[in-house]
Amino acid sequence: MPLLDITRPEIILVLNEAYDKEKRLRSYWVSKNSEKIQEAATLTREPTNYYEQDVMKHAMIAGMATITRDHKIYTCNKRKVPLRDAKSIPGIETLRHEHSIINLGVGTAKEDPRLARPDTDSSPDPVMRPVDAKTKKIFFKPKPHFGREKYLHKRAKILPENKYYLPECTSWEYGWRLKDSKMLGKPLHGRNCILQKTLEGRVGPTRNPDHYRTPMVVDQTVRLVMI
């Protein structure tokens, strides 16, 4: 079928009539069904914000029980008594046994009275060490020489291991309680094993650089003749 020539006046007239008719029918349908459209466009329930993966996950979890229930091995094992690896299961009264700050050796009850608690006490251990009384007074004195800013500035100069019992972030793990390590640095005035390091090094002994050579002595008589 050949395409219509939309430049012809009679074709333009027919198209305009068709467009006007469709416009009237659309307007009539929208005005007639406006209440239904408003009801369909309005959310009458609480939004769940579910994704397609959430729906699939829920269906998979619901079907996992049937996998073990309908398996042939389940019919043999469902009547057996479950085995216990231990005679008793630890409870709340044994949670802090050998795991308190005092048992770990990072604090004592003399330094912090909050640590003097029975093993049956399941409350969490304190995170921060007690603040020095002299430093704490800075917080309550008036500005500008004292106050919260001066208190935080003074506390920032203290090592984290002297303020907290255990590392509270991963950046503290590097260098935490470094003074407790046996691998101390070399002495300031000690001798260095140059020969041992040279022979046992990765590349072995190497030649001396050029600036280590003996300087060349020029005979003064020869120098005068050349001048």
UniProtKB/TrEMBL annotation:
It comes from the Eukaryota. Residues 108-208 form the Sperm microtubule inner protein 1 C-terminal domain. Residues 109-120 have a biased composition (Basic and acidic residues). Pfam families: SPMIP1. Residues 107-128 are annotated as: Disordered. Coiled coil: none annotated. This is Sperm microtubule inner protein 1 C-terminal domain-containing protein. The lineage of its organism: Eukaryota, Metazoa, Ecdysozoa, Arthropoda, Hexapoda.
